[in-house]
Amino acid sequence: MNTSLLSAALPSIARATSTAISQERTTMTTNDPSLWLEDIEGQDALAWARAENEKTLGVLQSDPRYRRFYEQALSILQAKDRIAYVSLGRRGLENFWQDENHVRGIWRRTTLESYCSQDPQWETILDVDALAVAENRNWVFQGASCLPPKNASA
Fold first, then answer.
1. pLDDT (tens digit per residue) in 115-138
2. Residue among 135, 82, 127, 71 at smallest CA distance from 101
């Protein structure tokens, strides 16, 4: 086959394939019987999730070990002497912390010297609870990936 003919035909084949795939995705999306579950704050989706949670909780609570495991897990999560695990950030050691006062959590940082002390002093980067109240939204922190400032040297 002539390479120039092949070169001319390839864009048409690619467009036809792209159109077919796009139409297939649209058909799959509109025919999805569970699409309503993607409306995570919709009344139907929330009612379904509550009903499923009740069924699951009933099964879990019927296990004689449930109460002991639940109490152990709760005491670990609420321990006052938890270690604040950190990661090295651009401006110090960073940590995401949740407790009874910060249910959604705070992203914070400190210096190495402060972290090694008995009472580290933390600077708040983002208070997710305060942000949720201020914006009347249910925010969830899922980590951060930040670019360095434009004027920062490498």
1. 999 999 999 999 999 999 999 998
2. 127
